[in-house]
Design brief:
The complex is a heterodimer of chains A (137) and B (233). In chain A, 80% of the residues lie in helices and 0% in strands. With 137 residues, chain A is mainly alpha-helical. Chain B is an alpha/beta fold. Helix content of chain B is 43%, strand content 19%. In chain B, strand 1, helix 1 and strand 2 form a beta-alpha-beta unit. The longest helix of chain B is centred in the middle third of the chain and has 21 residues. Classes of the chains: A mainly alpha (137), B alpha/beta (233). Chains A and B meet through helix 4 and helix 5 of A and helix 2, strand 3, helix 3 and helix 9 of B.
C-alpha cells in the first residue's frame, strides 16, 4: 500500500466513522447508513486491491475496473440528481403553500381592519410587503 | 346540484399579476364595470402592481415571494372559494380579451351544461405568420403529450381564460407553480371527471402582449417540468 492509497483509505475510514456517528444519533435513516457504509467499504477495497474491481468488471462483462467505476459513478450521480430534484420540488411546494397562507391571512386581516375605509383613501404605502408580515404574528 | 343563476351569482374574477403596473389598472377598471369581485394576486411584484390594482378597486392578495402564475391562480381560487364564490374566472393580464366575452364562458356553466369552460382562439384570424405556424406545430406536440398523459382527448391550447363552477374549483388543486398550470388545469378537470367546453374568444394581440409573450422554446421547458412533476409526486 503506497502513500496515496493510505490517504484515500483514511478518507474512507473517516467517512465511515462520520456516517456511523450520524446513524447512532438518529439523524439519518438506517437504510441510508447501511448503503453509505457499503459504498465506503467498496471504495476502501477498490483502493487497496484494485484487481478485485477488475475481476468484478470482467464478471459483469465490462472491460476494465476503471470503466466499471465510471459507470457506477454516472449511475449514482443520476439517481442522486433525481432525488435532489424531487426534494427541491417538495420544498418549492411547501414554500408556495406558506406564501399562499400568508397572502390569505393578510387579506383577512385587511378586511377586518379596513372595512369602513375604502382602500383608495388609504395613504400609499411603499413598504406594504414588509408591513404585512408582523400583522400575522 | 342546481347551478346558481348568473344574475344572482357571486362571480369572482382572478388575475395573477407579476410586475404588470403598465396594464393592471386599466384591466381592473374594465373588469369592475361588469363584475363586483375582482381579485388580483400580486405575485411578488417589485413595481406598483399591487397599489394600482387596489386603487382601481380590486381585492389584492400579495405573494411575498414570486411563486409563478399557477401558484398565484390557485391562491386566488382558494380565496374566492373562501368568500362563497359561485363561479370563478381566471384570466391573464396580457390576454387582451374583451371583458364582455367572459359572459360567453360563464353561460354554459350557469345553465348547468358543463362544469368548466376554456377560452380558445376564435376563428377569423388573419393569415398566420411563419412564427405562428411554427408555434401551432409545437403546440401539436403539446397536445399529443397532454393526450398521452390524460388518456382522454382534451384541448390544451387555451388562451388563459378559464371559468369554473364552485364545484369544479373545489376539485382543482394546482400544484405546478410555473407556467405548466395550463396543462395541469386541463389534466385535473379530466381526472376529476368534470366536464369541459372550449369557447371561441376573440383575442386582440397587441404589441405589448407580443413583447411580453413567451418564446416558443418555453414550450420545451414547460414539457420538461410537466413530465418531471408526474414522476416526483
Amino acid at each position: 500500500m503506497n502513500a496515496l492509497q493510505g490517504l484515500v483509505v483514511l478518507l474512507f475510514v473517516t467517512l465511515a466513522v462520520l456516517t456511523l456517528s450520524a446513524g447512532l444519533r438518529g439523524t439519518v435513516p438506517k437504510r441510508v447508513v447501511a448503503a453509505a457504509l457499503l459504498l465506503w467499504a467498496f471504495g476502501g477495497v477498490a483502493t487497496v486491491y484494485p484487481d478485485t474491481v477488475a475481476e468484478l468488471a470482467h464478471a459483469l462483462g465490462v472491460g476494465r475496473g476503471a470503466d466499471l467505476l465510471l459507470y457506477m459513478t454516472t449511475l449514482s450521480l443520476a439517481v442522486a440528481c433525481f432525488y435532489m430534484y424531487a426534494r427541491f420540488r417538495r420544498v418549492e411546494r411547501q414554500l408556495t403553500m406558506l406564501v399562499r397562507r400568508l397572502a390569505m391571512d393578510a387579506a383577512a386581516a385587511n378586511e377586518r381592519t379596513s372595512l369602513p375605509v375604502p382602500r383608495s383613501s388609504m395613504p400609499s404605502d411603499p413598504i406594504r410587503h414588509s408591513e404585512a408580515a408582523p400583522r400575522l404574528m | 346540484m342546481r347551478p346558481v343563476a348568473l344574475e344572482q351569482a357571486r362571480v369572482f374574477i382572478i388575475v395573477a399579476a407579476y410586475n404588470e403596473a403598465a396594464s393592471i389598472g386599466d384591466l381592473v377598471r374594465d373588469l369592475m364595470e361588469q363584475y363586483a369581485h375582482v381579485v388580483v394576486v400580486d405575485d411578488g411584484s417589485t413595481d406598483e402592481t399591487a397599489e394600482l390594482a387596489s386603487e382601481a378597486g380590486a381585492c389584492v392578495l400579495t405573494h411575498l415571494i414570486n411563486r409563478g402564475q399557477g401558484a398565484a391562480l390557485q391562491t386566488g381560487i382558494t380565496y374566492a372559494l373562501s368568500r362563497a364564490a359561485d363561479y370563478i374566472v381566471t384570466l391573464d393580464v396580457d390576454g387582451q380579451y374583451d371583458v364582455k366575452d367572459i359572459a360567453l364562458l360563464l353561460g354554459p356553466i350557469s345553465d348547468g351544461t358543463v362544469h368548466s369552460t376554456l377560452g380558445c382562439r376564435g376563428s377569423g384570424h388573419d393569415k398566420p405568420s411563419l412564427g405562428m405556424r411554427l408555434r401551432s406545430a409545437l403546440r401539436a406536440f403539446g397536445k399529443l403529450g397532454a393526450r398521452l398523459g390524460l388518456r382522454a382527448p382534451a384541448p390544451l391550447a387555451h388562451n388563459g381564460l378559464c371559468a369554473f363552477s364552485r364545484h369544479a374549483a373545489q376539485m382543482i388543486d394546482l400544484q405546478l407553480d410555473r407556467l405548466t398550470h395550463g396543462s395541469e388545469i386541463v389534466q385535473q378537470i379530466v381526472a376529476h371527471g368534470l366536464t369541459l367546453r372550449e369557447v371561441p374568444v376573440r383575442v386582440r394581440v397587441s404589441d405589448y402582449a407580443l413583447r411580453k409573450g413567451q418564446r416558443s422554446s418555453a414550450a420545451l421547458r414547460v414539457a420538461f417540468r410537466y413530465i418531471m412533476a408526474r414522476f416526483t409526486r
